[in-house]
Amino acid sequence: MDQNILLSELSYKAIRSSGAGGQNVNKVASKVVLTFDLKNSLALTDEEKELATRKLKSKLTVEGILILNCDEDRSQLKNKAIVTKRFLEIIQKALVVPKERKATKVPKSVVEKRLKDKSSAAEIKQNRKKPNI
């Protein structure tokens, strides 16, 4: 993954933020919408695209486009920085290959303890019965 190429493929759009804010919200386009076309990206290899598509399935559109919004701050520049940082974190998490789980053998002491507990429980139940005379 080449981060410079990745950042050059991002497209930003500034729109008016929703919610309270008085007159400022009606005049200033401070909300930033980041879009990234995952399927047609040149920064990612085919394996990375497949892995990211699988992990980000719920966040992608039908066309394979990732859309992120940020309207946390009143400044458009700060929102752009926040959404770019969030995008990089999401992509890096999506590209992490999980370690393969190795099946381990059950320790001998655990097996012995289980059998010992089982036999002691059986013995307790035997002692509850009426004696055979």
List keywords for this structure.
three-stranded antiparallel sheet, alpha+beta, 5 helices
Structure overview:
- The chain is of the alpha+beta class and 133 residues long.
- Helices cover 46% and strands 14% of the residues.
- The chain is built from five helices and three strands, in the order H-E-H-E-H-E-H-H.
- Strands 1-2-3 form a three-stranded antiparallel sheet, with helices on one face.
- It is elongated, with a radius of gyration of 29 Å.
- It starts with a helix and ends in a 5-residue tail after the last helix.
The level of helicity is 40-55%
> What does the main sheet amount to?
3 strands, antiparallel
Estimate the strand proportion: 5-15%
> Uncertain spans, ≥5 residues at pLDDT below 50?
none
- Overall geometric form: elongated
Distance between the termini: 81 Å
In the sheet with the most strands, the strands line up as 1-2-3
Mean pLDDT: 90
Work out the number of β strands. 3
List the helices and strands and how they pair.
Elements (H helix, E strand, L loop, with lengths): L2 H6 L2 E5 L7 H5 L3 E7 L8 H10 L9 E6 L5 H19 L13 H21 L5
Antiparallel strand pairs: 1-2, 2-3
